[in-house]
Amino acid sequence: MTTEGEPLTKRDFEALARFRFGIRSYLRFSEETVRGHGLTPQQYQLLLALKGFPDRDWASVRELADRLQLRHNSVVELVNRAQGEGLVTRAAHPTDARAVRVLLTKLGEKVLAQLSTLHRDELRRMGSALTPPV
Question: What is the CATH number of the domain that holds 110?
Fold first, then answer.
């Protein structure tokens, strides 16, 4: 890619288009895969955000809203649905009585492991398609 102020070349546009196509292809794969396993894409993202939360195995709804880039009330509904399906559970927050911890259940861990393995394998298969343009 060119530096700021320089016009983009045909090669730059091709690299950007290839990268965008790779992102969209991966997202489509993800959406179809998680739906095929009975989850919504948002539920998979919730499980992944919980398992991948730095330095602990739980997160608050506020933290999840930030990670998922959703409104607090949307995450509450998402957690409610996931809890109803046995994927997550709630527990008392260790330091804030107004907040709760959201944790994966054993079922949530199992489903996430299966789906994440498929996602990792797809990323490997895609190879350079998701390499950002330089």
Answer: 1.10.10.10
In the chain, where do the E strands start and end?
58-60, 88-92, 100-104
Neighbours of 63 (CB within 10 A): 18
C-alpha to C-alpha distance for 53 and 51, rounded to whole angstroms: 6
Residue 88 burial (CB count, 10 A)? 24
**What is the number of residues in the chain?**
134
Is residue 133 domain-resident?
A: no
Residues 55-71 have a mean pLDDT of 95
Residue 131 lies in a domain: no
**pLDDT tens digits for 17-48?**
999 999 999 999 999 999 999 999 999 999 99
Give the count of domains, the chain: 1
Whether residue 39 is contained in a domain is answered as yes
